[in-house]
Structures are given as structure tokens and as C-alpha cells.
Design brief:
Layout (H helix, E strand, L loop, with lengths): L4 E3 L4 E4 L2 E4 L28 E2 L16 H11 L3 E2 L13 H20 L8 H13 L1 H24 L5 E16 L3 E2 L5 E2 L7 E12 L6 E9 L6 E3 L9 E3 L11 H4 L6 E11 L3 E10 L38 E10 L3 E9 L10 H4 L2 E9 L5 E12 L36 E15 L2 E14 L5 E15 L7 E17 L2 E3 L7 E11 L4 E10 L11 E11 L1
Antiparallel strand pairs: 1-2, 2-3, 4-5, 6-9, 6-26, 7-8, 9-10, 10-13, 11-12, 13-14, 14-15, 15-16, 16-17, 17-18, 18-19, 19-20, 20-21, 21-22, 22-23, 22-24, 24-25, 25-26
Length: 568
Amino acid sequence: MEKAFVDSTVGCFVTAGATLTLGAIAGGSFAAGAIAADIPTPDVPTTGMEQVNSVSQLTDVRPTDWAFQALQSLVERYGCIAGYPNRTYRGNRGTTRYEFAAGLNSCLNAIQKILATATADLVSKEDLETVKRLQEEFATELSALRGRVDALDVRTATLEKQQFSPTTRLSGEVIFSRSDAFGGEDATGFGRVPVDAGRGVGVQQNRVRLNLLTSFNGQDLLTTRLEAGNAIPTLATGGTTGGANSAYLLYSNEGRLAYDNSSVALANNSINLSLLSYRTPIGNFATLTAFASGGSHFHYAETLSPYLDDEDGGNGALSRFGQFNPIYRIGGNGAGAGINFKLGNIFKIDAGYIANRANDPSQEAGLFNGNYSALAQVSIQPGDRVGLGLTYVHAYNNAGAFRYGGSGTATGTFLGNLLPGSQGAFPSPPNRPTLTDSFGVEGYFKLRDRVVLSGWGTYTRATFLSGGGGRGDIWSYAGALLFPDLFKRGSLAGIIAGAEPTLTGVELAGQRRTIIDRDAALHIEAFYRYRLNDNISITPGIIWLPALNQRANNDDVFITVVRTTFSF
């Protein structure tokens, strides 16, 4: 018998005049690069090998190939061949000694099965001698391979016992925030009551989000978001009456941080279900998102606010206003559905309906009889450097319920949210049911890879129902200059300037009324998010409010923030 040897150049071994490729001895789940390779080949899959019963099943093996007879012999005599799921063999690929050892080990197992079933006559003396020499040659690699396989078995068993769920993964975000307010002396707050907005003390606050992300077929997504926090609005003081909610007397509703939530803060870190939604594709061009709780239009619609929009998370703009156009917040925090249509690679249509009292069976509530908002949007994004969107939102709200946001998460002035009793107009916005039609435009343009311009503008026409009727005009706009990856990859510097939703005109019973405080509620924000690593960022910044509560005569207010965000 001729001496068996390993040709390290072509990766094959020769015995008794027959040449066998390394792939030819691969049985079971083995293929080149499949098991314990020191240098796995990235373009070759390592799982999903299938046993073949005939060499003709391998589409890239032809009778004219030099190793065809060897492959055919191994299939027919030993059942020692496996192919890829697409019925290819890829026998010309290079390999490592560990891969060769894996294939050899598979064939040894096949031969042992033949011997154990008393069919030893199928194994020739020459083949057994060759196998013996190969075992000696690759003793070290075979031993290492068995050790690795044993270790993998142990690790796999441990993972199966300890895994949270085969369909669900956990992601989360934790925010530590240090903030303070300065200025605001002799300002007027809610109801034009004299206040000192900078009288508060510095605070340390937090917000925690845990997202359970479940997929049942690899394309859909069930999101269950649990949230807890204690972030009271910065321009607030303890109290039980007045303000934009029943718990805290707010000096102003402006400058709200993205993660503050006066409703959640009431419970002081108690767990709250903040979002429950399910997203699934419909065909190749549409995606449907259904909301059972906590849904807002920005959860499904394209906001065209790159880098700033983080769904009120801890990695975008500091303020709620700075993240994206407030039009997406109208009628938020409810139940409903949204759908996205993608027309080619450029055009996109978004549409949705949210009812924020959908669970309430009262006469003026429910899914269709109470507060609701409906959105329609067309956007165009030719490439990744420019985007433009046109948005329309129609909404109905019961008396005093209109908000640019959900309960406890609004943005804009008290007057801009048509809050009765704010008395910046004479008389104040009426406590009546309201229909609103909002028109928005938003877009961005990347001047270069590390310089981005973005902005938006919105006009809302509010119609007061009953009591003689009337209307109100609300405006909001902003522009942003962003510097992604400044000084370090993943970091972000940003400057945002604009006006939070501001009531500029009121008409009641056919008569135009004078608004005492009608100056644009200017908002200037600057921040720098420094990315320590993939999971931790620190964002110092400042928010400047030069016309608190729509009144330029008010003393300027400054809010300083140092936000630390942990993501996992």
C-alpha cells in the first residue's frame, strides 16, 4: 500500500492511488470551515449541512472532476459526505488542519458504525490502514477537537437552561440626570401668577426603561416597555393645585427634558407600562404597527430628525421639544394603529390613528367617541443625505384636553396647549371641546459626513366647539446644526434654536381677542454627547428660555443638565 500523506498545499490526502479531497471525508454536520476552525471563512456558512445519499445531489460536482470517483466511493461505501443547504459542495476551498481533523473525525464515526453493525467487509484493509495513520498524524488536532466539542456541549446546555426566552430579548436604558435652573426672577407663571422660576434647587433624577422585544417569525416585533423614574419637570415646585397637572405647580411647561414625566414621577420609581405595541410587515411594501398602550405618532412615523430623535430616550436631544417636530406628539400616549407604505427607495407614506382614552367606556371616550388624532404624511429621502416630509394631523379633544403630548409629557407653553386658566389671553383659552388641524414640514440635509442641518415648522388651527365657537392659531418652528462623531466616533454636538408651540391669535364668537402674552416662546439648546463606549454616554448641556410663557419681559431662564446614559 502506498504511503498516505497530507498535501498541505491542496488540502487532500492520497491512498492506494486514489486521491480524496478534504471535503470528501466530511460527514455528519462537517464542511470546510464548519467546526473548530482557527480562521473561519466569513463568506461560507458554518451550519445547516445536509447528508447526501448520492454524489449526483451535489450540483457543483461533475463526473469530469478529478475527485469524482473518490467522492462517489465515500458516499456509497461509508455515507461520509455532507453538502450545503443549496446542494453545493465547494470542494476547491482551502482548509485548516482543524477542519481536516473535523472531517476525519466524522468519517471515523461513520466507519465505527459500520463495524458495529457487523458489516466490516465493507471496509477494506487498505482504508483501515490509512485511517490508522491519519489518526496518528492528527492525534493532537482530534484531541483538541473533542475537547472543544465537549466544552461547546456544556456551554450549550447551560445557555438552554439559563436563557430568558427563545423568542424574546431584553434591552434597556438607565438615565442619571443632574439638572438645575437659574434666572426667572419676577416672571409670570401659570395664570400670570408672579413666580421665581430659578428659586428651585439642583436635583439628581433618574429614568429606567426595560424593553422586552419579542419576535415570533423573525420579521415581526412585540414591544413591551416597562418604565420607572422620578424626573419631575425642572421648572416645577411641589403643590397640589394649579399648573399643568394636579400634582406639581409648574412655573412653565417649556424646557421640559425628554425623560421627565410628571405623571410617572408621582409614583416615585414605581414601574409603569409605558408602551405595548406589535409591528408586522404586510407584503413587501407595508408595515403595520398596532398600539395597545402608550402609542404616539412618532413611534411609527418617520420624523426626519436624524441624531436628535430617540423617542424621548437618553441619547438624543436633551429637551422634549428638541427631539423632533411637536406635531408628532398631538394626541399621544394612547391606543390605535399606524401603517407605513414604502414606494420604491425614495417615497414613503405614513398614516395612523391614536385614541388616548381608548380604554375608557364613558360616553365621550373610547376608541372612537373621545379624544383622537389622525396623521397622514408623505416623505421623500433620495439617498442618505437629504430628507423632506409634509405632515397633517387632525385631532379632536374634550374640553381642556388638547396637548402637544400625552398626559404629563406635553411640550410648549400653557397657552400653546390651550390650557384653560392660563390667562395669557383675555379671556383665557375657553374650556370647550376642540378640533385641531395641524400642518407641518420637516427635513434634514447632510452638508458633509460630520455636519448636518435639520429643522421643522408647524401651524395648528384650533376650532372651539360650542359656546359661540371660535378659533386659535398656534405656531412652532426650530432649526438645528449638528456635528456627529465630533472628537470621537459616536459622539454628537448639537445646537437647536426655535420656538415651542406658541398661541399667537384667538377669536371667540366672531371677535378677535387681544393676547397679552404673545411673544414667540424661544428655545435655544446646546449639548455635547460624549460617547465613553458602546454602552455609556455623558451629555452636558444648557437650555435658554428668553421669553418664558410667551412673554419677552420675563427674566431669562437657564436650565443646565448633565445626563449620563447607560444602554444595554
